[in-house]
Amino acid sequence: MHPQLTAADIDRIIEMAWEDRTPFEAIAFQFGLSEPDVISLMRTHSKTSSFRMWRKRMSGRHTKHQQLRNEDVTRFKCSRQKAISQNKITKR
């Protein structure tokens, strides 16, 4: 886990982890966290029931893994996602 993550970063990572169409690779690109790191963060910062529900929802979801996605999808985020604050990609 990266200790330099702010509370806002952790909130954004949790939000991205819950988003169906945001792959784990996007989280790694923006925050440097691997999938196991994200799982650990979710386990630490979520209620047990919420974590279980998230894991059940994410297991086998093709959109959460870049390799399993349709090859026509080449972006990390929805084209309408620019307006979301705290999104580090749009601020570059």
Q: Could you characterize what this model shows?
A:
With 92 residues, the protein is mainly alpha-helical. The chain has one domain (7-83). It is 46% helix and 0% strand. It is built from four helices and no strands. α1 packs across α3. It starts with 6 loop residues before the first helix and ends in a 34-residue tail after the last helix.
The radius of gyration over CA amounts to 13 Å
Note the overall shape.
globular
For the sheet with most strands, the description reads:
none
- DSSP E strands, number: 0
* Ends distance: 24 Å
The stretches of 5 or more residues where confidence is low (pLDDT under 50) are: none
**Order of secondary-structure elements:** HHHH
Mean of residue pLDDT values: 77
Strand content: under 5%
Number of domains: 1
DSSP helix count? 4
What features would you highlight for this structure?
46% helix; mainly alpha; single chain; 92 residues
Task: List the SSEs and their pairings.
Layout lengths: L6 H12 L5 H8 L3 H11 L2 H11 L34
Helix pairs in contact: 1-3
